[in-house]
């Protein structure tokens, strides 16, 4: 017995050293292969990866049909070359030729959407339809560098309208968005942390606040040698629907807190910040006009009547949004960073000490502009994303920008929110099936949902589903996040797979870390 106890202790020490994603990988190995035996009729379900198994089909059909039209436009030039050469689209008569193309292909999936999109751009947004089609055709052909590098001109306007609808809603809002199209939320996080450091907005030893619990990389990045930041947690209370109390939010009044990073709706609890909390933060900003916020609102499109912190504190807030989950587009890598044209970031940079401003002047003057001191924060993001010297080829690939805009137009045209309502019917039904098969009573609508970011605190409620979970000793991981994306049969398989994983993980742990790592 003593020997068994010692082995168990060593195994737990090994698992405690795992990063969140390493632990997830070991669970997958334990449940899905190797020496682990599973009944043949049980499938391993990875419930720890935020990848939907649904996707928006209409804007994808539109993408392919637009590509065919753009190819036809390209082949109008150099038609005398049988070797397969083409040219750039021609602006003159482009809208008329598109209408002919649409009539010829009436009934083909994607055509009705494209014609509606062109009509919406012209009639509702007041943009030139021919210029829009030219930008889209050249973009989907990928025949030129992204110009402007931050985002194509008309496409930025359209994405701004989408963000206004989904992130601002009916809340009063004055101004527009400056948008940088990026390779998903991952790139957004990387670029923002880097540019804030390079521009002395955060320095080693500075303190930032994190809304807690939060997506694990936000926990890990500040600790890196690149940043060496101190962290204050704003702890949300599970007993109060995962909202932060005024006492927690009052931590932001401390002048040593330079910035606050939030995920809203939260990840993993998946609860949006309520109106009272948003207003409380806005009132704090009146006292702390120098406070910087980053709000990562990737799940906002799933929430009812969502309002981003950006709507209330636009001068102080960097808005991050990703198209990955709502449109089932994780492989496309589509995200945005948005700031208000009048923002505190630019003011803080302008107010830096002279020696730091001199460093930044040298950094940006050669490759970017003859007036580097007037360079906006968001344009510094673009330059820094390509190590400044490669700024001339910066920017998200133009086909990615085209798909981003088609996703945006799909949502803008869908005034009844039919797609959104369909997802809101689908996801809760899967959640109910998963909870039912795990033997957990689903809480009433409006209350906070059970989360698995710390499985030990929940394991006592469902020991039949998760044997061995209570023995884990890993403070900050999301490896056991419940997927909301499983059908009823999938839920049953998920529980069985989890049982296999948890029963076998302790025997595999010691093989995954050396004795030295375990001891540490």
From TrEMBL:
Record-level Gene Ontology MF annotations: aspartate 4-decarboxylase activity; pyridoxal phosphate binding; transaminase activity
Keywords: Aminotransferase, Pyridoxal phosphate, Transferase
Keyword Transferase annotated: yes
Domain Aminotransferase class I/classII large stretches: 197-348
SUPFAM superfamilies membership: PLP-dependent transferases (SSF53383)
UniProt GO BP: aspartate metabolic process
Cofactor: pyridoxal 5'-phosphate
A Pfam short name: Aminotran_1_2
EC number, as in UniProt: 4.1.1.12
UniProt record similarity statement: Belongs to the class-I pyridoxal-phosphate-dependent aminotransferase family.
Record PANTHER family: ASPARTATE AMINOTRANSFERASE
Identification of the protein by name: Aspartate 4-decarboxylase
Taxonomic placement: Bacteria, Pseudomonadati, Pseudomonadota, Betaproteobacteria, Burkholderiales
């Amino acid at each position: 017995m003593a020997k068994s106890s010692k082995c168990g202790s060593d195994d737990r020490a090994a698992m405690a050293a795992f990063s969140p994603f390493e632990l997830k990988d070991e669970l997958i190995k334990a449940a899905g292969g190797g020496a682990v035996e599973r009944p043949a009729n049980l499938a391993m379900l990875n419930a720890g990866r935020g990848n939907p198994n649904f996707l928006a089909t209409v804007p994808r059909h539109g993408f392919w049909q637009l590509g065919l039209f753009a190819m036809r436009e390209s082949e109008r030039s150099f038609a005398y070359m049988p070797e397969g050469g083409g040219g750039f689209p021609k602006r003159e008569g482009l809208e008329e030729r598109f209408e002919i193309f649409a009539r010829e292909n009436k009934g083909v999936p994607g055509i009705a959407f494209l014609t509606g999109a062109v009509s919406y751009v012209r009639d509702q947004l007041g943009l030139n339809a021919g210029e829009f089609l030219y930008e889209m055709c050249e973009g989907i052909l990928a025949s030129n560098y992204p110009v402007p590098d931050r985002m194509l001109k008309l496409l930025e306007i359209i994405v701004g309208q989408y963000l206004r609808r989904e992130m601002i809603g009916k809340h009063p809002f004055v101004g527009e968005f400056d948008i940088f199209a990026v390779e998903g939320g991952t790139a957004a996080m990387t670029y923002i942390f880097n540019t804030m450091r390079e521009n002395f907005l955060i320095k080693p030893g500075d303190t930032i606040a994190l809304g807690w619990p939060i997506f694990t990389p936000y926990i890990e990045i500040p600790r890196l040698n690149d940043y060496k930041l101190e962290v204050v947690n704003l702890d949300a209370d599970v007993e109060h629907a995962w909202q932060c109390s005024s006492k927690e939010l009052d931590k932001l009044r401390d002048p040593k807190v330079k910035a606050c990073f939030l995920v809203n709706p939260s990840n993993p609890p998946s609860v949006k910040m309520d109106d009272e909390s948003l207003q409380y933060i806005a009132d704090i900003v009146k006292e702390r006009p120098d406070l910087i916020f980053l709000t990562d609102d990737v799940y906002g499109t799933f929430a009812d009547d969502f309002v981003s912190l950006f709507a209330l504190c636009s001068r102080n807030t960097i808005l991050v949004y990703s198209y990955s989950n709502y449109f089932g587009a994780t492989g496309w890598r589509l995200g945005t960073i948005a700031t208000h044209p009048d923002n505190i970031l630019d003011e803080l940079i302008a107010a830096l000490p002279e020696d730091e401003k001199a460093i930044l002047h040298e950094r940006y003057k050669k490759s970017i502009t003859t007036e580097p001191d007037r360079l906006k924060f968001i344009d510094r993001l673009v330059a820094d994303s390509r190590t400044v010297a490669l700024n001339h080829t910066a920017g998200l690939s133009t086909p990615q920008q085209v798909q981003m805009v088609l996703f945006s137009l799909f949502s803008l045209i869908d005034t009844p929110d039919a797609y959104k309502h369909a997802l809101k019917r689908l996801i809760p039904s899967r959640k109910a099936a998963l909870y039912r098969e795990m033997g957990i009573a689903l809480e009433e609508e409006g209350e906070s949902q059970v989360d698995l970011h710390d499985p030990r605190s929940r394991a006592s409620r469902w020991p039949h589903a998760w044997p061995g979970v209570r023995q884990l000793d890993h403070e900050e991981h999301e490896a056991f996040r419940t997927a909301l994306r499983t059908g009823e049969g999938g839920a049953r398989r998920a529980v069985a797979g989890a049982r296999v994983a948890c029963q076998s993980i302790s025997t595999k742990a010691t093989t995954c870390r050396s004795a030295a790592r375990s001891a540490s």
